[in-house]
Amino acid sequence: MAMLVTSPSIASAHVGVGDTSGFAHGFWHPIGGVDHVLTMVLVGLIAAQLGGRALCLVPAAFVAVMAIGGAVGFAGIRAPFVEFGIGLSIVALGTAVALGFRIMIAAAMALVGFFAFFHGYAHATEMPENVAGLAYGAGFVIATALLHASGLALGLVASKAGPRGETLVRVAGAIVAVAGSALITGVI
């Protein structure tokens, strides 16, 4: 986790950076940016902490709203504070994991959905305006779902480990929230 947080590739997953054509580029886009990876894994961890229907509904809300953000970005509509929203997603979701928030599933869906818009927008502003754009979009949606599944798996394994596992997840959430703050302020 420390390697991910201190990696210089943090800003490489954002608007106007790199080659963007087809499924592979769309798939690697969220995986290539530490801020995207952390946020997607945190969404899975939040869903695992809530359990039950949240296991499916929270990640699904993120993907659905990310697609809406993507459509807005693809349409060329300007959205303010995209980079700040992405950075803030790490802080807010890391804090939620650290504190083990027990909120209603609908509130968790709204929280992750709010931040999903910024991630979808950032992805889509790089999307090609042709058939390769559809493949690119499919790639980033699938990668996002896989990162959510990774967070879910980590959270479920940790919960089976009992209090130590749950504490480890909460400490990781706190570390990620602090790293997100450093990212927003430009410290890293």
Task: Summarize the topology.
Blueprint: H1 2-6, H2 22-31, H3 34-50, H4 54-74, H5 82-99, H6 105-124, H7 131-160, H8 163-185
Helix pairs in contact: 2-7, 3-4, 3-5, 3-6, 3-7, 3-8, 4-6, 4-7, 5-6, 5-8, 7-8
Explain the overall architecture.
The protein has one domain. 77% of the residues lie in helices and 0% in strands. It is built from eight helices and no strands. Helix 3 packs parallel to helix 5, helix 3 runs antiparallel to helix 6 and helix 5 packs antiparallel against helix 6.
Question: Which parts are unreliable, with pLDDT below 50 for 5 consecutive residues or more?
Answer: 1-17
Q: With helices defined by DSSP (H or I, 4 residues minimum), what is the helix count?
A: 8
The helix fraction, in percent, is over 70%
Sketch the topology as an H/E string, one letter per element. HHHHHHHH
In total, the number of domains comes to 1
Shape: globular
Give the tally of β-strands: 0
Structural class: mainly alpha
* Beta strand %: under 5%
Radius of gyration: 16 Å
Overall mean pLDDT = 86
Main β-sheet description: none
Multimeric status of the protein? single chain
Beginning-to-end CA distance, first to last residue: 14 Å
Quick summary of this structure?
The chain has about 190 residues and is mainly α.
